[in-house]
Each structure stands twice: as structure tokens, then as C-alpha cells.
Design goal:
3-stranded antiparallel β-sheet; Beta-lactamase; about 45% helix; about 300 residues; 5-stranded antiparallel β-sheet; 12 helices; binds glutamic acid; alpha+beta
Length: about 300
Amino acid sequence: MDYKQVLENLYDIIASEENDGAIATYIPELAKVDANNFGVCLLSTKNKEYGVGNWQTKFSIQSISKVLSLSIAYQIFGDKIWERVDVEPSGTPFNSLVQLESDAGIPRNPFMNSGAMVICDMLVSYYENPKEDFLAAIRELCSSSEIIYSEAVAKSEASVGYRNKALCNFIKSFGNIENEPEEVLDFYFHICAIEMSCQELSKVFMFLANPNFTTSKGTKVLNLSKTKRVNAIMQTCGFYDESGEFSFRVGLPGKSGVGGGIVAVYPGKYCITVWSPKLNEKGNSYRGMKFLEAFTTETEQSIF
Ligand code: GLU
């Protein structure tokens, strides 16, 4: 398959069409990004890399980080994590509080903000220096020391994060957060504020695509059974209340973030990351969705 040709053709077509949607502005620092950025990077499991547009520009990965925190917690704690967070699609927005009351503080899945906070709480309990240790784990996954937190984005989100603070305190009231909410929230805001390029994200997600993946230190991240489960949660819960739509249109497991990034994984074949900051009304990158739908249609490859 000549991925290069397909990527370049689709990129030109989509770049020439209207760029609908709106940049996320509820985190003031995110509003500063140039809406015209558009990048794509595909990394195959055979280590062939193809990039187009702004594929090497770093951006705020936001909720994409939730796959990384989940995977690392899963590696550390194993199936015990499912005692504190469920694996059902929620059908509600990412920052919803409504189901938590009837579910007694057990979030529906680890990609909603509530579920990600419970995972963050586990990591805060486990690590000696949570922010430093988590970043070191991500750098090891990416074989790169260039991965950073944007302190400006983390601070900006903390300054307006009333709903996330409410969520964390609410879960704490049910006893499903062990640490002080302030500490968990600080960790959560930081992992959302990680900055990576499409190139780096495709590399970091390779452990979910390549069954033989090992980190720069030679460690295996997840075994096949755990990899299957993380990909399954991405498939069913990776796109807020548009997860069914993404499955329907693209047919791959993936995860989006309000910074406009989307990573999709084709197990055994490749990781592909698209970044375009304008979001549709469900909070997913407008061009990202469009590009990936066209890509799996054009290549006639999907897991289904
Ligand atoms: N840090 C963002 C928030 O909690 C993440 C949102 C997202 O990318 O879905 O609002």
C-alpha cells in the first residue's frame, strides 16, 4: 500500500476545502493556537514514517493523554483498576457529572474526565514524584527527551477548571479518590497539557499497534490481552458522545483531544495522528474526522 501517495492526495483535497468548526477557547491558552495548522503522520509497524503539513509541530494533546495514563496504570495495577472505573460508553459529554450520582462515584469509562481523574489518583498514589515520573514514562515510550508539559496550558486550565474541580471533589465524596483533590487535579491538568507533535504521538502509540513493541529500555508495555482491552475502550469511548460516529465513519480505535489532535490505531499495521485545531460541536477535530474517514475509505483498510 502506497500510504504516502494517499496521505498527500487527501491532505491536499481536505486542505483546499472549508475548515469548519471552532477552536476550543474554554481553556484560554488553547485559544492562542493558529487554526490553520493541519498535520498528519502515519508510522507503520514496519517503522516506515510518512508526514504531511504541520506534522512536526507540537500541540496540546489534552484528552489523548488519557490513553497513556490508562495504559501505564493498567501496566502497574492490572485488572484491579476496573474495580474503580467501568468500561461502558457514556453517551454523555466528556465533563459530565450526571451519571456519577447514580453510579455511586464509579465513572463510566477511563476516557471521561471523571474516569481519567480516578486513574490519575491511582498514579498519584503510586509515583514518588507523579509529574516527573509520568513524564519519564512517556519519554521512554517515545524514545525522546523532548516531551514536555506546557506549564502555561496547565495553569490556564486550572484557573478556569471549576467543573473538573467539582468532578474530582464529587468522586472524592464517594470515596473513589484517595488523595487530596488539589493534587489529583494538578496532575490531571498537567498530563492534559503535554505537548507533542503528530510524529511523536504516532510513535508513542506504537505499543498499541505493534505486538512486538518494547520501549527504549527494552520493556514491554502491555501484553496482548491488555492491548486488546485498551484498543477496545478507544473504539467504544474514544470520541466523547461521538464515539459511535467515529467507529461508523473511520472504523479504527482512536482517541481525540480538544487541542484538535486525533490518534487512530490499526493493530498490526500502523498508528496515524491528525492535528487540526478547529473542533466540531462534539469536540472532535473537524478536519481530523474528515481526513481519517477518507483515509480508511481510500485505502480500503479497517479492522472491520
Ligand atoms: N483538559 C481538558 C478538560 O478536562 C481535556 C478535554 C479533552 O481533551 O477532552 O476539559
